[in-house]
Specification:
Blueprint lengths: L2 E5 L1 E7 L5 E7 L2 H6 L2 E8 L1 H4 L10 E8 L7 E3 H6 L6 E7 L2 E14 L7 E9 L5 H6 L9 E3 L1 H4 L3 E5 L4 E5 L1
Parallel strand pairs: 5-10, 6-9
Antiparallel strand pairs: 1-12, 2-3, 4-5, 4-8, 6-10, 7-8, 8-9, 11-12
């Protein structure tokens, strides 16, 4: 069993009324409130396709930010990331968003949770959508919290015990 403890800290540095340096470190719910919860993920061509005979697909991977979306029943990848990985559509489904219902392609991927110890998920069926992922921003910094290429849905979350402690902006995950 693996455990992930994600702790958001707020650091303030300055001077007090007497001119002495003062540093304050505290837990704050602001990070979770403003950006939600993200994990670094390695997304790859599905094992089923890489090992497929007689015509296996080449293994292609990307490490990017994944955003927890408790409103998503299924994990979803940005179209541009799916194209970058040369993912092959496996079907279509209708997803419901704030903007209404939309038909989207489905894919199958492998996903690993970078530096967490959480078990990888192989041959996961996912949907696709437009998350506004930018490869230009990714090239500048692959860890920009608002440039996520995948939404982590309840299909993955249901594999874990997730505790979200809002007042301290702390998330605990165990599998």
């Amino acid at each position: 069993m693996s455990h992930v403890n994600h702790l958001n800290l707020e650091l303030q540095a300055g001077k007090d009324a007497s001119g002495n340096s003062v540093t304050t470190v505290r837990q704050s719910p602001l990070a979770l409130m403003r950006q939600g919860f993200n994990l670094s993920l390695e997304v790859a061509t599905a094992t089923a396709f890489v090992q497929k005979q007689p015509d296996p697909l080449p293994l292609k991977t990307i490490t990017l930010v994944g955003h927890f979306d408790t409103g998503a029943s299924q994990t979803s990848i940005d179209y541009k990331v799916a194209q970058h990985l040369n993912l092959i559509p496996t079907g279509q489904i209708t997803i419901r968003t704030a903007g209404g219902a939309k038909g989207v392609d489905t894919f199958v991927i492998d996903v690993a949770f970078v530096n967490t110890g959480l078990r990888s998920v192989r041959n996961l069926r996912i949907s696709s959508c437009d998350l506004g992922f930018s490869f230009e921003r990714y090239a500048q910094d692959p860890n920009i919290a608002t440039n996520f290429g995948i939404l982590i849905g309840r299909d993955i979350m249901s594999l874990w015990n997730v505790t979200w402690h809002g007042p301290t902006s702390t998330v605990f995950i165990s599998d």
